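Hi Prof. W.,

I finally got the L-histidine N(Alpha)-methyltransferase prediction working! I wasn't sure whether to trim anything, so I left the full sequence exactly as given:
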Amino acid sequence: MLETAERVDPAFREDVLAGLSAPIPAVPARWLYDRRGSELFDEITRLPSYYPTQTETALLKQILPGVASRVPSGTAVVEFGAGSATKTPLLLEAVRPAVYVPVDISGDYLRESAAEIAGLFPSIRVEPVVADFARPFELPESISAFPKLGFFPGSTIGNFVPRTATDLLRSFRDLLGVGSQLLIGMDRVKPINRLLAAYDEPEGVTAAFNLNLLERINRELDGDIPLDAFRHEARWNDILSRIEMHLVATRDVSFTIADRRFSFASGSSIHTENSHKYGPRGSRVLLLAGGWTPIAEWNDSAGDFAVILSEA
Ligand code: AVJ
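And this is what came out:
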């Protein structure tokens, strides 16, 4: 018990206790991604109904020569997130940067994937940075003179509400500097049935991903939440243009977390994740508000997903 308690991030405890006591109960989405959560998300990306990963990967294969032609030679690529095993090699293959700087909060995962990239691309210098990219951090001194290309795929920007998303984009601009570039993936608005199917599929992996948060709370914060008292729900919030994940109480339920008592009425929910979807104009306005001027944009033929190159 003590052994696990020692490793618990105090911010997790604070976020859960404050979040579940709020008028609209919610827990920040980043706590979904513990080891098990990251494995489940990986499984999600391989589901037939979860189109973003397949669509973006196919789109990148097509467009990367065009991207590379707009990127100066001798560039340093800075990826926000440790990088996916498939998308990152595609980018590096096309752009052939001098340096690759993956930035991730998880040191173990970062070192593993950085070593893999270094093995695949012996001519690219790999300089991983352990940091939460949503908080201030510094790039290695050694790349200060290089032209820079930020890479932020996967529609991860969609996890942030627009106010926070623009703050994040501005912090990327401050970090990379005027004249730098950003290649970002953004999921598009599309028919609601397809959006809902991507976040609530028959295989039940997204449900397990969402419910894993409760298991994590029970394990790390000494909770006794009965898992069968909550079910996964994906909702489309039209006015805010986003998919929301919720954990909905299937009956009146009370439980304890870290010696604090909580009660949820049947049908009430814990909001666990947002995934904002943008139309063509909206995505460009968001980038502009964040200090980035779009210079080229690519969409798959169905218009499901966009990759946009911008300049600071
Ligand atoms: C990794 C945040 C882009 O919002 O589509 C997938 C996470 N959540 N299924 C997304 C997620 C449920 C994903 N992002």
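The longest strand covers residues 230-237. Does that look reasonable to you?

Thanks,
D.
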